[in-house]
Structure formats: structure tokens, C-alpha cells
Amino acid sequence: MSKTASLARVGLVYLIAFGAATAYVVAGPDTDHLWLDGLIADLIATVVVFVGSRTLKNSSCYDPYWSVLPPFLVLFWFFAAEGVSGVDDGRAVLLIIVVFVWAIRLTGNWLYDWPGLHHEDFRYAPLRDGAGRAEMAADFGAIHLVPTLIVFAAMVPAYAVLARPGEPLNWLDVVAFLVGIGAPILQFVSDAQMRAFIKVRQPGQAMEKGLWSWSRHPNYFGEISFWWSLAMFGIAGAPEDWWWLVAGAVAMTLMFQFASIPMMEKRSLERRPTYQDIIDRVPRLVPRPPRRRTTA
User: Fold this and answer.
1) Which candidate among 93, 197, 210, 221 keeps its CA 20 to 30 Å from the CA of 20?
2) Cα 24 from chain centroid?
3) Is residue 229, in this structure, part of any structural domain at all?
4) pLDDT tens-digit series, residues 66-115
5) Does residue 100 lie in a domain region?
6) Per the domain annotation, does 213 fall within a domain?
7) CB-count exposure of residue 43 (10 Å: 0-12, 13-18, 19+)
8) Cα gap 16→239, rounded to integer Å
């Protein structure tokens, strides 16, 4: 199946998914809690995408959900909370800009790199196969539901900014904005460097140039930085609530540190003989100058 045909099928799934989510927030029962309305709409869309993944026999149908959902939530909370007293409009605008810059870059990256429905993320099949008869439950739970819940938790600071009274704009908002804009720029550069390397790499060669010489996963560092920028926006508006505003960013960090990165590194060690040397010298996540190679 061609990439165009694959994108058309996945696009139809998302049109149905977010059509159903929008129908819920517009005409569904009112819970009197905008965060809960957003969560229910999120879960409805996730279930539709899961059905689409099963129908298309490819769990990578879920992959763009990560970057498509946040703009939906911020727009819903922004318009639904219109007129709420004490919401700082300046902070709300800065946060929305950060979310859309990040989402456009990440979605565009997926559109550019995903070859079509003949390809599925290498991590998904082992998760399903390892569950045996519970394969469908593992597909829904591990590949669809858990990421949805983590992303929603990391979006809670956006809800706090857009739908609750907060402190006036302050210096932490400036830091959050700079980090939030810098994160997708770092990801854009690291992805471009990786694409250029892939075109000329030799079999088994590992990337260790540019940003990738300062961090083994600069794209993941950018991703984590984006979610922490949202937490900082939330804390800027409600510093006394910091303890629950950081929960989603912490969960996101732990997911990358203990799930995504170990799986990527295991695969690299199996396929690239020089990767252990890179592990020994190049930082795992936070960029810094690499260690020098030791001579025998």
C-alpha cells in the first residue's frame, strides 16, 4: 500500500476519532469539570483510534495521536473557559503558541518519516506477542491507553493555565516559553542531522555527530523539555500547586528513561557494533561534551 493511501486511511480514523471527541464536548453531558470533560473526550478518541489500529492491523496508527491531542485539548479548554475570572490571557497565549509549535513540528516529522501501513514501530509486536491470549488487551492498554493517560497527565498544567485563575504573568512564564520553543527547535535540528546521517551511513554505523555527539537521545531530551515547559507555565500561575502540576512531566520523564530509551538502546546494541563505545562516552539524555576515547 502506498504512503498516500496509508495516510488517507489513518486520516479517516482521526477524522472519526476527533469528530466523536468534539461531539462529546459540544453535545455530551456536562460534568461541571472541564478537566474531566477533556479526559472523557480524550478516551473516546483513543478508543476510536484503537479500533482503527485493529482494523488496519497496525498499531502505529496511534503514533500521531501523541501530537494531535494536545492542540485539541488546549483549544477546548481555552474556549470552554472563556469568561472565567482570573485567567491570565498572556500566559494562555504563550502556552498555546508553544503547544502548536511543538505539535506542528512533531506531526510534520511523523508525516515525513512514516513510510506507510506496511511499517509498524518495532516496539509494538513484542508487547502484543508477549501477552499471548491477552494480545488485544496489551495492544489497547500498553500501546494506546497508557500513553494517552500519560499525555493527559502532562497536559494538566495547560488546563490549570487555561481554565483556572492564576497569578499575573511573571519571569517563570518567560523561562517556560523559551524552553517550550527551544525544545522543538532542538528536535528539528537533531532529526535533520539524523536524516542526513542515514543517507550516507555504512552498515552498522552509529550516529555520533552534531547534537548526537553530546547526547545519545537529543530528540527525547527535546521532547521531555517541552513537557516540563508546560509544568513551568502551570507553576507560574499557581506556585502553591506545584506538587501536582509536575506529576505529568515526571511520568513522562520516567517513561522515556525506563521504557523508550532502554528499548532503543537495546536495539542499537544489537545492530551497531560501535554503539557500546558511544554509550561509554556520550551522555544518555542531558547534553554535555562527550568523554574522550581512551587509548589502549
Assistant:
1) 93
2) 24
3) yes
4) 999 999 999 999 999 987 888 999 999 999 999 999 999 999 999 999 99
5) yes
6) yes
7) middle
8) 38
